[in-house]
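The data are passed on as follows:
___
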Amino acid sequence: MPSRALRGSITVFLSLCSLVFLTLFAAVFSSVATASGRVLAANALDQAVYSLLSRYDRDLWGSFDLFALSGNENGPDFGRCLSDVRENAELILHPGTLLTGYAAWPDLVMEGVSVTAAGTLCGENGDALLRQAVEFMEDTLGVQAVQLLSGSVWRDASSLSSLEKAGEDAVTEEKDALLRDIEKAREEKAAGSASAPAGAAPQAETQDAPPAHTPSLSGEEAGRRLGVLRKMRASSLLTFAVRDPDSISGSSLPEGFAPSSLSPFPAVGLQRPAGSAEHGTDRLLLSEYLLRHFASFREPTKTASLAYQTEYLLFGKKSDTENLEECVRSLHRIRCGAAMITFLSDGKTMQEARSTAEALCASAGIPELTPALSAVLIGALAWTQGALDVRALLAGFRVPLLHRDGTQLTFETLPLVLSEPDTLLRDDPSGLGYEAYLRMLLCTCNYQELRERVPAMIEDTIRVRYARPSFRIDGCLDMIELSMDVHIEEMLHVTVVGRQSYRKGA
């Protein structure tokens, strides 16, 4: 019989090859499911962390342009963070479940989420917060503007220490003592002259005695000048510097408040250094940030425990009055040094000082002290000029670094200091104002103290301004890293890690 071919039949060889191909296809399918599952799990965790960071503290951002996840009265709220991440990750792992009721391929089952690393705003001794502040300024200020500002500020700030040292040396306790001794000697001599017999004649000079030098200034006028300088030295510098002393804020920090009371939550997991903002352009940007976000004497706030916050950052006292007083003293030392340089280079002022010293020493009967008294009078005049400059700064005027002819105090205008001081104030468009001096002081103050005081002042402001007494700056997260365990098609277990921060490179 002729053979017939049967349709649909396969050979044993093809059957064996099919087993190999099916195994290969199954392996490819499993590999694709695994790779797809890993990508979906990683994407789900990243999106969940992004969603978590979008719930930053709105009050902190609104007042200080800082991003952070607020915690509770016990520190960072990791429980709420994990709950939010699980909820958001589930929506991405099973995108169609809520709408169709069918699970997507591959089937992913989340087993758990845990925190593997976290950092707070107070982490790294406060560098995390200050670094975020610097990054905000970098993102909002033009590079060219930063370079110009950097050159002018650092140039002016470099002369502060020398001016302050000159101001400290202008009038010392020893020089004050000499002024008191001269005044006492004049009073004693005047009393002695008044008690002498009416008909008594002065003792005749001997044949060889040199002729007495006649001062170009009367003893009475010199005495008035000395009296003004002595009264200025004895008066309160703060009371003189502020036009209306009653307007000085009497606010103070709440009882028990101190930067050291903040106990930063211990860092969790591996941390990447935030980097210090202590030097260079970073320090300049930090100073500018502090000036923009914290109140000062010229623009006080009523929504914080302290009205003069910038002065607190500089000096760290408990009350506005104490901080302003320290600020006035610091500014006065700087301005006193600048005035001393101006007067020592001004021949007319030096001549007036010598004439006044000659008249005072002649009336006191101790002419040999004329050179020493002349130097003391220059220092006392510089002290008074410094006090006038500080008064001008607090009143909103701009003061030149060094006074030019016609703008500085003279011995002739000295009596006006006590009676009409405001008539001696001048606004110089090319000079520096109060804010400019605060900027330079912030650039040169102790960086470690700023790392303690800035978080403390932010915490106090948020508590008072937004009525949140339980707010803690040391519980605010600015970086978090999470790991998520996922089962893929009930066959493979994978762990993915997601790390996000509000800071660059953290």
In short: Residues 198-213 have pLDDT under 50 and may be disordered. The longest strand covers residues 108-120. The longest helix spans residues 12-53. Residues 28-154+258-304+445-506 form one domain.
